[in-house]
């Protein structure tokens, strides 16, 4: 077997590039078929990339933080030391099959029973940062990128990711001062970003003239003249690059605002009966709880069955409106990498309990960054529960190319008139943002009124499911 060059594979959904987040292996390491060799971040998600070749690593193409185009070399593998070309180890592992699910490579068989190399965590001292003019260091595995930082009390703070190390260095943050939130106290990107967002020590003020040609009086520590305002000296603007998921979010929202003539309507609804219904369901079967979000998803599906015009998209090139046969329900989820909308395919075919289980699994995977790109596209209608942020209402932007989005505010106790008497009820605000090209106010209002009626009288759902 000669050297094998593994190219960055097609990661699906039209993605053309990926940023290297962290190498899992180093030059000289031995890898097996389907062993994860690198973690990359695409415009959709963070993905572990398995290698379809077995052997010894002889080259890593690209350093952490570098963007690589699809189809370009990623890693070069040679026969393991001491093994002749075509050694049985490689052939047997290849016959054992590839368990990867990425597009464009792999043997396509099962991958049961094969041991995989685990990344090593080293606590070797962290090397001093290279000067700006020095060439970038060669990419290293987790072991080489890791390092300890002494913290008060004698503990050791570990920084695994080179991205985290670079982010801390660029902003002048000493990892030794951070409390790692990862397993074993590992300092994560979120820890560095939290430190950036926290209060900073007040720098020494510098007098600023009240007109451009005026000169400050006194020394840097001296008094300022009347009419002059002291401002912090040496502060720099925080620059956050629009890359990866954040760039895609920005592009998609901007396109939605440019292309979709959207309208938002809203209504308050008494959710007392819905809360009680959920409590009764979970009391009867506590082993399979149903969330309020699952009940709201069921109500959305009922409304879309009655008003299919909202389960659609506008094909601007073909000058037509396309109504989807099935409902692929998007669920807006806030993650460390920004807002994502994972999709439940054919949600209309799921029972309420199946919806609850799928929602729990999907939102957890989205927050962990483990969803494949295919799970983040293809939605036909979105449900956005912004009430979890403690707000009542919103005019959200439609998830292009969809045509509508239902928003749900927080459920709070409010005075409400019931049968002519004032009472305290569980009230929520519902909003529908829709593309005015696919329907008019009658359809949109009818859908939102149906949703509100089902929230107030969950028994109405029985007639539709």
Q: From the helix content, strand content and strand pairing, which structural class follows?
A: alpha+beta
Kindly provide the name of the CATH class of the largest domain: Alpha Beta
Which percent range fits the helix content?
A: 10-25%
Task: Report the count of strand segments.
Answer: 24
Strand proportion:
25-35%
- Shape designation: globular
Largest sheet: 7 strands, mixed
Termini, distance in Å?
A: 59 Å
CATH architecture of the largest domain: 2-Layer Sandwich
Q: Poorly predicted ranges (pLDDT <50, ≥5 residues)?
A: 85-156, 200-227
- Estimate nothing, just give the exact number of structural domains: 4
Rg calc: 28 Å
The CATH topology of the largest domain is given as Chloramphenicol Acetyltransferase
- Helical segment tally? 9
CATH superfamily of the largest domain: Chloramphenicol acetyltransferase-like domain
Mean pLDDT: 78
């Amino acid at each position: 077997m000669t050297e094998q060059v593994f190219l960055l594979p097609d990661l699906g959904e039209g993605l053309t590039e990926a940023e290297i987040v962290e190498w899992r292996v180093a030059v000289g390491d031995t890898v097996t078929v389907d062993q994860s060799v690198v973690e990359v971040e695409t415009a959709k998600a963070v993905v572990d990339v398995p290698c379809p070749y077995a052997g010894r690593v002889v080259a890593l193409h690209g350093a952490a933080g570098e963007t690589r185009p699809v189809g370009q070399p990623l890693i070069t593998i040679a026969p393991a030391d001491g093994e002749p070309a075509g050694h049985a180890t490689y052939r047997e592992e290849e016959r054992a099959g590839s368990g990867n699910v990425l597009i464009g490579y792999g043997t396509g068989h099962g991958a049961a029973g094969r041991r995989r190399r685990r990344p090593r965590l080293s606590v070797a001292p962290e090397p001093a940062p290279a000067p700006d003019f020095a060439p970038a260091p060669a990419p290293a595995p987790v072991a080489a990128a890791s390092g300890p930082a002494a913290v008060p009390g004698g503990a050791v703070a570990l920084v695994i990711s080179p991205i985290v190390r670079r982010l801390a260095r660029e902003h002048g943050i000493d990892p030794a001062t951070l409390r790692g939130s990862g397993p074993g106290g590992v300092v994560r990107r979120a820890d560095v970003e939290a430190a950036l967002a926290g209060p900073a020590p007040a720098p020494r003020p510098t007098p600023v003239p009240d007109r451009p040609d005026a000169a400050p009086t006194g020394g840097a520590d001296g008094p300022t003249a009347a009419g002059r305002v002291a401002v912090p000296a040496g502060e720099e603007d925080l620059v956050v690059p629009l890359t990866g998921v954040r760039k895609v979010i920005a592009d998609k929202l901007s396109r939605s605002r440019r292309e979709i003539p959207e309208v938002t309507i809203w209504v308050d609804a008494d959710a007392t009966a819905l809360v009680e219904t959920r409590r009764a369901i979970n009391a009867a079967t506590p082993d399979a709880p149903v969330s309020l979000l699952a009940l709201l998803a069921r109500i959305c599906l009922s409304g879309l069955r009655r008003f299919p015009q909202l389960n659609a998209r506008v094909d601007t090139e073909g000058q037509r409106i396309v109504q989807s046969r099935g409902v692929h329900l998007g669920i807006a989820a806030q993650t460390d990498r920004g807002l994502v909308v994972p999709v439940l395919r054919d949600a209309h075919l799921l029972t309420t309990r199946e919806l609850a289980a799928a929602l729990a699994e999907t939102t957890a995977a989205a927050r962990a960054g483990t969803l494949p790109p295919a799970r983040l596209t293809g939605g036909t209608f979105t449900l956005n529960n912004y009430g979890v942020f403690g707000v009542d209402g919103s005019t959200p932007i439609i998830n292009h190319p969809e045509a509508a989005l239902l928003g749900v505010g927080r459920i709070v106790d409010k005075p409400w008139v019931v049968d002519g008497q004032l009472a305290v009820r569980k009230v929520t605000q519902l909003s529908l943002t829709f593309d005015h090209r696919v329907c008019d106010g009658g359809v949109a209002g009818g859908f939102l009124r149906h949703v509100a009626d089902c929230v107030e009288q969950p028994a109405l759902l029985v007639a539709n499911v």
